[in-house]
């Protein structure tokens, strides 16, 4: 192979040498051209010898014009390619690509209820109103290692502290359907949680992710996927606690499973999925707690909150449905959570306890669901790959004279953290007054290029019941679990990732 390439290079170089002059040509010109050719042949021979020693294929050879100045040669095989950032690949199975994500948020979160004694709703809220924050400042790297191994490392520096994103080691043979992932990763829990925060339709994932405490954990995951047509995924994993958990000898654990099927029906790509989680609480803190913000993390206030519940853990079952048809997309998910609670009078062994969790006369059940639709005014289709949303390719980016991609989205989001587990009382141990939240959201997303994003969002969250309903709506004749109030929010984001 190297000999044939070398011969072709010599022919190309010879053909590039201009013909000797037939009329009026001078002998010194001929001698100069022959000298240039001999020098070029010597150079090519040394390059081929070096390539043989390294075992790599020779690069394309550029012809030498009559002037003797070499033409720019093609970039070598290991020159970096660009996928939002330079990706360096060697000939021995190694690759390296720096990566990052920057999200700056700003917005306003309203206050519920009337003003009472100088405070809104009878409460002195510390972080409502206008706010700005660096939502994510992620830096890391990813790449491949010989033998089908790979790595991905991400650290989040937002809020002046270091947090851990995906930190994983992977293994997958070429064209193999089996992917093994070890490290700090999201358990296989839902379409929303498995989709990167770079690519969501709104500033935050659906409320089920916040309310049901989905977060990355240390563990191992196995995924069996369709390597050719991307039609199905089967995933299962076993996980311990979060990577920064300090209870080394009494950590809880979680088992997760998820399956997706994505056939094409005409011009429409469907997504059907189901997921299941079995979670066990830490032995020295056997309690669970569920709560959610009002559709935005521009505030840390939660108006729906179960408080701590004495429990061994919980089980969650979820269903997923989505579709992509040209510029339209649709998505919906629903989950039900069953708490495995302890009854009043339960005794615990040494070093075990519930850390202040309340005991209930039954096992509470909580629910959450959302549905959304979206449309690209500029004709793109939402990206999809491997059972999750993927990056959308901008058809006419601004650097090529276009307007970028413009998308609008609408969502309805519902969480119910109230449950009657016993008699008629609205207090523990018969009733969990966590409250209900029904949210309406609209967002507008502009992608000037594949790796830039600007978002604007409006949300209105209606709350019923919950731990603050009696204070926010003190004069109502309705039962405390039926008293309602609303919270409005607006937010904008500037984002770049690579």
CATH topology of the largest domain: Porin
Distance N to C terminus: 38 Å
What global shape is seen?
A: globular
Mean pLDDT: 87
Protein name: Porin
Signal peptide: 1-21
Keywords: Signal
What does this structure look like?
Residues 1-21 form the signal peptide. This is Porin. Keywords: Signal. InterPro entries: Porin_dom_sf, Porin_O/P. It comes from Sphingomonas parva. The chain has 498 residues and is mainly beta. The protein folds into two domains: 1-77, no CATH class; 91-497, Beta Barrel (Porin). Helix content is 11%, strand content 45%. It has five helices and 26 strands. The chain has helices spanning 2-16, 27-54, 191-194, 207-211, 469-472; strands at 81-82, 86-89, 95-109, 115-116, 119-120, 129-145, 149-156, 163-171, 178-185, 217-225, 232-239, 253-261, 264-265, 268-280, 287-288, 291-292, 304-305, 309-325, 328-341, 365-376, 383-385, 388-390, 405-420, 431-447, 452-464, 484-497. Strands 3-6-7-8-9-10-11-12-14-18-19-20-23-24-25-26 form a 16-stranded antiparallel β-barrel. Strand 24 (431-447) and strand 25 form a beta hairpin. Helix 1 runs antiparallel to helix 2. The longest helix is centred in the first third of the chain and has 28 residues, at 27-54. It is globular, with a radius of gyration of 30 Å. The protein starts with a helix and ends with a strand. Residues 1-27 and 55-75 have low confidence and may be disordered.
């Amino acid at each position: 192979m190297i000999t044939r390439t070398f011969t072709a290079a010599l022919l190309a170089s010879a053909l590039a040498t201009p013909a000797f002059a037939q009329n009026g040509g001078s002998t010194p010109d001929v001698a100069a051209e022959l000298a240039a050719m001999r020098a070029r042949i010597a150079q090519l021979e040394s390059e081929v010898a070096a390539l043989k020693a390294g075992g790599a294929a020779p690069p394309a050879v550029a012809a030498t014009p009559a002037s003797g100045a070499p033409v720019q040669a093609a970039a070598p095989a290991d020159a970096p390619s660009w996928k939002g950032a330079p990706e360096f690949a060697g000939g021995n199975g190694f690759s390296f690509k720096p990566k990052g994500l920057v999200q700056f948020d700003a917005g306003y979160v309203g206050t519920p209820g009337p003003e009472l004694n100088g405070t809104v709703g009878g409460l002195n809220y510390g972080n409502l109103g206008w706010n700005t924050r660096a939502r994510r400042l992620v830096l890391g790297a990813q790449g491949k290692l010989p033998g089908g191994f790979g790595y991905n490392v991400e650290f989040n520096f937002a809020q002046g502290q270091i947090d851990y994103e995906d930190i994983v080691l992977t293994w997958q043979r070429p064209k193999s359907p089996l992917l093994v992932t070890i490290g700090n990763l999201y358990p296989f829990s839902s379409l929303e949680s498995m989709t990167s925060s770079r690519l969501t339709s709104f500033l935050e994932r659906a409320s089920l992710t916040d309310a049901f405490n989905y977060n990355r954990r240390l563990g191992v995951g196995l995924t069996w996927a369709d390597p050719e047509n991307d039609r199905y995924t089967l995933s299962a994993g076993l996980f311990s606690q979060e990577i920064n958990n300090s209870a080394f000898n009494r950590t809880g654990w979680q088992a997760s499973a998820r399956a997706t099927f994505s056939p094409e029906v005409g011009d429409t790509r469907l997504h059907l999925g189901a997921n299941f989680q079995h979670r066990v609480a830490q032995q020295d803190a056997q309690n669970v707690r569920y709560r959610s913000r009002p559709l935005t993390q521009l505030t840390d206030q939660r108006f729906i909150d179960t408080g701590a519940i004495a429990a061994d853990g919980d089980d969650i079952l979820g269903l997923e449905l989505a579709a992509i048809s040209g510029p339209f997309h649709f998505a919906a998910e629903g989950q039900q959570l069953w708490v495995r609670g302890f009854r009043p009078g339960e005794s615990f062994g040494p070093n075990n306890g519930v850390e202040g969790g309340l005991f209930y006369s039954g096992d509470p059940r909580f629910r959450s669901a959302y549905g959304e639709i979206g449309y690209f005014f500029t004709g793109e289709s939402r990206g999809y790959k491997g059972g999750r949303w993927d990056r959308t390719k901008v058809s006419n980016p601004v650097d090529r004279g276009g307007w970028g991609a413009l998308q609008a989205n609408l969502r309805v989001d519902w969480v119910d953290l109230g449950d009657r587990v016993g008699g008629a009382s609205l207090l523990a141990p018969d009733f969990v007054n966590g409250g209900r939240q029904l949210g309406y959201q609209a967002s507008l997303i502009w992608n000037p290029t594949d790796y830039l994003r600007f978002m604007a969002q409006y949300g209105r969250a209606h709350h019923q019941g919950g731990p603050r309903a009696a204070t926010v709506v003190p004069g109502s004749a309705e039962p405390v679990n039926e008293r309602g109030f609303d919270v409005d929010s607006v937010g904008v984001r500037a984002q770049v990732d690579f």
